[in-house]
Amino acid sequence: MSIIHRDIKTSNILLDDRLTAKVSDFGASRGIAIDQLGVTIAIQGTYGYLDPEYYYTGRLTEKRDVYSFGVMLVELLTRKKPTGYVPSEGVSLVAHFMLLLNQDRLSEILDSQVSQEAGNEAKEVAAIAAMCLGMKGEDRPTMRYMETKLQGLQSVENIVKSDPELEEVLVRLRRRTFERSRDNADKEGHSNSRRYSMEEAMLFSASLQR
C-alpha cells in the first residue's frame, strides 16, 4: 500500500521544537495498492505545486508527491511562492527556475542570503530539485532516493568541515555534477538523476580514507 499525500506544500510542513519536519493535512491523501498505482482519479492539489502529468492525465502514481517536493525545494532556494509568481518572462516559478538553471544563470533567481550562506550547497540542492521536476513521472527519482541524497549531502558537509583539503575535492566534484545535471537538462528538457563517474567516486573515496 502506497500513501500519496496529493497536496505537499510548504504550508503543510510543520516543525517541532527540535526543528524536525512533520507532514500535516492528509485530507486529500489516498492509499493506493501497489497493483493499482496509475489509476485515474479526480484532480486534487494546490496550483503551483501540482504535478503537470497528474493534472493532464489524472493518473495517480507515487511520483505525484515527488514533483511537489521539488517545487518546495525551489521555494526554499528562491524564497518565492509558486502561487501568484509573475516574473518579467511571464512563466511559472518552476519554469523560470529550470530555464535559468539550464542556462547556468541560477544565481539570478536564488535568494541572496541563501546564495551567500549555502554557497555550492545551493547548486547541489538545485540539481536535486531539477531531478524531482521531470515532466514525466517515470523520469523522477523516488522519495527514498531523494532522502538518501539529501542526507548524504549533509553527511559529507560535516566531514569536510574539519579538512580543508577534502573541501577542495568536494568543490571539484560538485562542479562536475552540477554541469552534468545542467547539460542533461539541456538535452532532454528536464534534469534526471546523474551519478559520479567511477573515477570521481574513487577520487573522493580515497580522500575520505586519508
Account of the protein in words:
This is Protein kinase domain-containing protein. There is one protein chain. This protein has 210 residues and is mostly helical. The protein has a domain at 63-208: Transferase(Phosphotransferase) domain 1 (Transferase(Phosphotransferase), domain 1, Orthogonal Bundle), CATH 1.10.510. Helix content is 50%, strand content 6%. The protein is built from eight helices and four strands. It has helices at residues 52-57, 64-78, 93-102, 112-118, 120-132, 143-160, 164-188, 198-208, and strands at 2-4, 13-15, 21-23, 30-32. A two-stranded antiparallel ribbon has the order 1-4. The N and C termini lie far apart (45 Å).
Radius of gyration: 18 Å
Widest beta sheet: strand line-up = 1-4
| Strand segment count | 4
Shape: globular
Can you write the helix and strand succession as a string?
EEEEHHHHHHHH
Fraction of residues in β-strands? 5-15%
Distance between the termini: 45 Å
Mean pLDDT: 75
CATH class of the domain at 63-208: Mainly Alpha
CATH T-level topology of the domain at 63-208: Transferase(Phosphotransferase), domain 1
Runs in which pLDDT lies below 50 for 5 or more consecutive residues are 190-210
CATH superfamily of the domain at 63-208: Transferase(Phosphotransferase) domain 1
Number of helices: 8
CATH architecture of the domain at 63-208: Orthogonal Bundle
Percent in helix: 40-55%
Largest sheet: 2 strands, antiparallel
Q: Which structural class is indicated by helix and strand composition?
A: mainly alpha
Keywords: ATP-binding, Nucleotide-binding
Protein name: Protein kinase domain-containing protein
InterPro entries: Kinase-like_dom_sf, Prot_kinase_dom, Ser/Thr_kinase_AS, WAK-like
GO molecular function, one term: protein serine/threonine kinase activity
